[in-house]
Amino acid sequence: MGPMKLFTSLCLLMCFWINVPAFAAERKIQVVTSLFPLYDFARQVGGDKVEVSLLLPPGVEAHDFEPKPGDMIKINRADIFIFTGKFMEPWTANLTKGSDNQSLLVLDASQGIILLKDRAEEKGVDPHIWLDLANAQKMVNTIAGCFKAKDPANSKFYQDNSLSYNKQLQALDREYQAALAKCRQKVMISGGHFAFGYLAKRYNLQYQAAYRGFGTDAEPTVRDLLDLINKIKKYQVKYIFYEELINPKVANTLAQETGAGLLKLNSAHNLTRDEWEKGVTFLTIMAENLITLKVGLSCQ
Ligand SMILES: [Zn+2]
């Protein structure tokens, strides 16, 4: 071995050795989330200290989602897994069974949030907590608390990020309060599933959705549709809302039967591929929803 080659080898060895602690210190916290709002909150709070991935593939309807073995491996390899709550993701009940990752933190983002229960004759718990902008702020705080526990050295960083993001959520919440207090129409009808119960409650709207239960599997009966058509006529509802990731055939039927218009309202469970490419955020989705609601409910 020539002297130059020896020097290069030594240098490579030294550089590698010197770089090991630095590399380890810069390793980002690996975070996996179930739904899009959690993904967005985690990246807002974690900034460049975390690497966040969303379990749901683009365009997949969230209530039907069941993790595949590959998803379970992905969760098992993460530092933190954040889910919405046991009523949104019941499959998380057995998550840590058989896991060999002792340091995995599993975070229920619904902790400390009052869950809404039962509607009409339907029994159950409404899992769509993120659509109330006050709940969204609580979820952001819960996530910040988790990041601080996992990485105390950067506590202030997570704290500052959560405060500034929550300020944006508060500002949008105030816009909602102001705009939705001035609507001629207070009855909000969805041809999709019952996703906007928390939003309606926060802004004093009456809300009814065509689908039974709180998920997307129980389509309305003919009787349900006839009741809804009567309600649309009775309250002179001008627009019916429909959702991106659910077939709008029910909303279309309601519109055809009543002459009402259709408006798309985004319940933000997940993004389409197109939305990913556009780089939409939870805040841009909710800001757009407010514009839609103002049209749909005839707000000044
Ligand atoms: Zn839903």
Secondary-structure blueprint:
Elements: H1 3-26, E1 29-33, H2 36-46, E2 50-54, H3 69-77, E3 80-83, E4 105-108, E5 117-119, E6 122-125, H4 133-150, H5 155-180, E7 187-190, H6 197-202, E8 206-209, H7 222-234, E9 239-242, H8 249-258, E10 261-264, H9 273-278, H10 282-296
Helix pairs in contact: 2-4, 2-5, 4-5, 5-10, 7-8
The structure holds zinc ion.
Features:
Rossmann fold, two-stranded antiparallel ribbon, 300 residues, globular, 10 helices, four-stranded parallel beta sheet
Compute the number of helices. 10
Question: What average pLDDT do the residues reach?
Answer: 91
CATH topology of the largest domain: Rossmann fold
Strand content: 5-15%
Could you give me the name of the CATH homologous superfamily of the largest domain?
Answer: Nitrogenase molybdenum iron protein domain
Cα gyration radius (Å): 23 Å
What is the CATH architecture annotation of the largest domain?
3-Layer(aba) Sandwich
> Any idea how many domains?
2
CATH class of the largest domain, named Alpha Beta
Can you put this structure into words, describing what you see?
Helix 2 links the parallel strand 1 and strand 2. The chain starts with a helix and ends with a helix. The chain has a four-stranded parallel beta sheet with strand order 2-1-3-4, sandwiched between helices. The protein is built from ten helices and ten strands. The protein folds into two domains: 151 residues, Nitrogenase molybdenum iron protein domain (Rossmann fold, 3-Layer(aba) Sandwich), CATH 3.40.50.1980; 120 residues, Nitrogenase molybdenum iron protein domain (Rossmann fold), CATH 3.40.50. Helix 2 crosses helix 5. It is an alpha/beta fold and 300 residues long. It is globular, with a radius of gyration of 23 Å. Zinc ion binds next to loops.
